Amino acid sequence: MKFYYGAVVFAHVVSAVISVGPLFLLLPLIRRLRMAKAEAEDIYLAFIRVIIRLVMHAGHVLVISGILLILSGPWPWHTSWIVLTLGVMLLSGVFLATGFSAVLKKFHEPGNNKDAIIKKLRRTAWIYISLMLVMLWLMVQKPVVW
Ligand code: HEM
């Protein structure tokens, strides 16, 4: 049981690294997208899509391993830092599902303002990074709020 729990914590932390790390690549890519010529745009967009997909899959492993930790570990689900993480998680799930995909789809629609779309993409990336860092802090510090 001890080995199993340790292995799940390890998988949980690795998936946390993969859920947060690639997000920092988004910012320079979005900056380059702004200045890119039409032929290069699709390459940057493809990279951005790969990063979002990677972060999304790692996020699923993060949630599943987190649930396994609750089921088999010493922390009940109503522990304050877990409830707070779950709350922030719901917020960020909505963000990644609606924010990024909707914005990316609009990019090639005729008559769209690319500057406005890129600005929105940047804002969404920053909000998502902030939410992930808040959750990382909650998980590592485990603050007892109630
Ligand atoms: C469904 C949501 C989540 C649940 C139920 C959950 C549950 C847990 C639990 C119970 C532990 C304690 C393991 C232990 O020390 O015995 C833990 C540790 C950890 N979690 Fe989560 N987690 C969730 C989401 C996240 C997210 C979103 C992140 C990162 C952004 C994250 C990063 C970590 C890290 C880095 C640790 C190791 C911290 C340490 O032990 O010092 N978790 N998680």
Give a brief outline of the structure.
The chain is mostly helical.
Give the SSE map.
Layout: H1 2-20, H2 23-35, H3 38-72, H4 80-106, H5 114-141
Helix pairs in contact: 1-3, 2-3, 2-5, 4-5
This protein binds protoporphyrin IX containing FE (HEM).
Residues 9, 12-13, 16, 19-20, 62-63, 66-67, 69-70, 73, 75, 82, 85-86, 89, 132, 135-136, 139-140 line the site of protoporphyrin IX containing FE (HEM).
Structure commentary:
- The structure is a single chain.
- This protein is mainly α and 146 residues long.
- It has one domain.
- The protein contains five helices and no strands.
- Helix 2 packs antiparallel against helix 5 and helix 4 packs antiparallel against helix 5.
- The longest helix is centred in the middle third of the chain and has 35 residues.
- The chain is elongated, with a radius of gyration of 18 Å.
- The site of protoporphyrin IX containing FE (HEM) has 23 residues, from helix 1, helix 3, helix 4 and helix 5.
Attribute tags:
mainly alpha; 146 residues; binds protoporphyrin IX containing FE; elongated; 5 helices
Tell me the number of structural domains. 1
| Helix residue percentage | over 70%
Cofactors, ions and other ligands in the entry: protoporphyrin IX containing FE
* Secondary-structure element pattern, one letter each: HHHHH
Please state the structural category. Answer: mainly alpha
Instruction: List low-pLDDT spans.
Output: none
Number of helices: 5
What kind of sheet is the major sheet?
none
End-to-end separation in angstroms reads 29 Å
Overall morphology: elongated
The Rg value, from CA coordinates, equals 18 Å
Number-wise, the strands total 0
- The average pLDDT value, as a whole number, equals 92
